[in-house]
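Figure S7 source data.
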Amino acid sequence: MDRLTTNFAGTLFGLHGEPAHERIVVASDAESGLQAVIAVYNTARGPAFGGCRYWQYASDYEAYHDALRLSQGMAFKNALAGLPFGGGKAVILKRPEQMDRTAMFKAFGRLVQSMGGVYLTAEDVGTTADDMRAVQSETPYVSGIPRDNDVYGGNPSPRTAYGVFVGLKAAVQVAMGRDTLDGVSVAVQGLGSVGWDLCERLHRAGAELIVADIDAVRAEKARQMFGAQIADTGRIASVNADVFAPCALGGSITEAVAAECQFKVIAGGANNQLMSLAEGDVLHRRGIFYAPDFLVNAGGIISCVREYLGSADKQSVLDEVGLIAPRVFELAERVKVSGVAPARAAVAWAREMMVLR
Ligand code: NAI
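Tokens for the predicted NAI complex:
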């Protein structure tokens, strides 16, 4: 594919119809082969904090667009979680040729350092704590590294999964009037770091699982360990279940899925689940409660922020992540009062919070 032409849905400065991003850095490093985009959406609450994705994109502009959307989501996420940080995100373009990974992440660390603390990084899809250690050798503006003999910090995924679990449970209470997940059926898309941990928690809570992953080995393991039914990856969004938990990449709630799916609740870990807010409106009209991704998947960034600030042990972080549940209840109240869909109500709520420091 031509790497410069694609159906890129933004402008040089940001997303169509949205306030412009504060800063977008496109950088390359010839020696290590690094090609990266760092997008800073908003720093009204503090420096922009958000992970670094390492992914192979169909085009450069697709990567640019991903950085724009993900950084906006981080601004909403950090604001709703009450964190003293703005929203940013980095994307490193994965190339087919073999790279010296450590050299590349060191170069990325120098890039982060050159921004002087406006952007702080951590793991996201495709990056690991070891990558962040390489980044840390070049800059202090990094999180997601086990500290103090693993007393705090480290891979944020378990805290993300815990937050999704409590948020999903709250959403079930809102939409189905049930305060337990016993016997509730949940379709989980993606069994990676977040999806797998979520399945463990759901299974322990008595939920019935339907799972899909492009990695058939993971799906089979879920069948054996949790008695999960396996669905085809192309059909997981249309299975018959109470809850849909997207935990793979974004964009699972397409126009067709929003119009046809039979779930009562959608709550999962993946960023940017809705193709656009219009899909959220359709879900709302159809009586499906969508708990926005940037509300329920904040556990990881809460962990990274507390690690960065050097303050919290794992239990106090879990306690803070647990506050996602009351936020889901507050969102449901806002939806009731305003009559707008949860996705729009959550964006409006986040924008209110974004003017506060
Ligand atoms: P991961 O890379 O560990 O897992 C993703 C899983 O999805 C893999 O098992 C992969 O095989 C599967 N997958 C990919 N495409 C699929 C498809 N079309 N159908 C079914 N399965 C598919 O990633 P991780 O860390 O679990 O993240 C999952 C999502 O949660 C991502 O969207 C990420 O941005 C988001 N997220 C992750 C956080 C974290 O702490 N790890 C924090 C906040 C959001």
